[in-house]
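Cast an eye over my tokenised protein here and flag anything odd:

===
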Amino acid sequence: MQSQSMDPNPSRPGRLYYVIGASGVGKDTLMDYARERLIQAPVIFAHRYITRPVELKGENHIHLSEAEFANRLRLGCFKFHWNSHGWSYALGTEVDTWLNQGLNVVMNGSRGYFEQACSLHPELIPVLITASSETLRERLVKRGRESVEEIEERIARAAEYAVPQTALMRTIENETTIEEAGEKLVSLFKEA
């Protein structure tokens, strides 16, 4: 049985969506929700290359050793790369191939790398996922990865950090149900 392929619009490049948000806002959950609903759409969710080992829960990333990461960086295999919390992160140059095929590409970005990403790809569309401090605290406690002190530090950093606003910025509030915020994200990623 032959699979049918979607006909992306190669007459125009796709859009690059740079999803950012503080730890605990539900960014990964919402991206997973959108990924499942856009499986037949001309939308690609880019995997990140990270030197952090893969966990049973959380982001489905591609693990690279420090040496592998350094080699790929040296060989020009990454479109974006940054360091955060002691780990190295990157997205590959395959992102440009997908964009040139007219596909919309969704990436899990870093707030700290945002301005550099904008300078490298000025047309990127930032998508800020937000939630109140109370909601962040509740989700971080439920996640169980950090101590109480680490959770409070994350909440303080989230409150202090202001993402530079751009004309292209989109904001999704994730205070109610996954479905409500998730459907807003799905609609956004399907924009032509």
User: Anything to note?
Assistant: DSSP finds seven helices and nine strands in the chain. Residues 1-5 have pLDDT under 50 and may be disordered. Helices lie at 27-37, 66-74, 94-100, 114-120, 133-143, 148-160, 178-189.
